[in-house]
């Protein structure tokens, strides 16, 4: 079973504690807001799923950068309206295989699928090459 605990002071200042780490919650510098955690959960789930598929396909790359952004609805409840994930793969071996891995990751990532019930989901995948000297 997965779990987290949270402790809050009066006002919006708290701490999220998980089995392997702690995150400060709030609206001040150095803290994470609720949708930061939602977007972080999406990005980490999507990357973990993408990585699993790339490993199974035996496709190697140097690293991945992701930016997750979204827009909330104005009507209550203010669920997400749109979510976009911009993915950049650094120095990949096989672009076509990674295109397929990302498409499959969006199908198998549970957080992506959960959010897709309330938001229009999209992603872009690009590749970046740097000289290795």
UniProtKB/TrEMBL annotation:
Regions that span the bilayer: none
Name the record gives this protein: Putative redox protein
Taxonomic lineage from the root: Bacteria, Bacillati, Bacillota, Clostridia, Eubacteriales
Provenance organism: Proteiniclasticum ruminis
Any Pfam family: OsmC
PANTHER family noted in UniProt: PROTEIN YHFA
Superkingdom of the source species: Bacteria
């Amino acid at each position: 079973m997965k779990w987290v605990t949270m402790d809050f002071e009066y006002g919006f200042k708290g701490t999220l504690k998980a089995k392997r780490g702690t995150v400060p919650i709030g609206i001040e510098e150095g803290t994470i807001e609720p949708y930061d955690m939602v977007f972080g959960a999406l990005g980490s789930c999507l990357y973990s799923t993408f990585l699993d598929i790339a490993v199974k396909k035996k496709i190697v790359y140097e690293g991945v950068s992701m930016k997750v952004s979204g827009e909330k609805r104005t009507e209550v409840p203010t669920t997400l309206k749109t979510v976009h994930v911009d993915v950049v793969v650094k120095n990949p071996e096989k672009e076509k295989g990674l295109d397929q891995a990302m498409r499959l990751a969006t199908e198998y990532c549970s957080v992506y699928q959960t959010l897709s019930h309330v938001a229009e989901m999209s992603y872009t995948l690009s590749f970046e090459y740097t000289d290795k000297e």
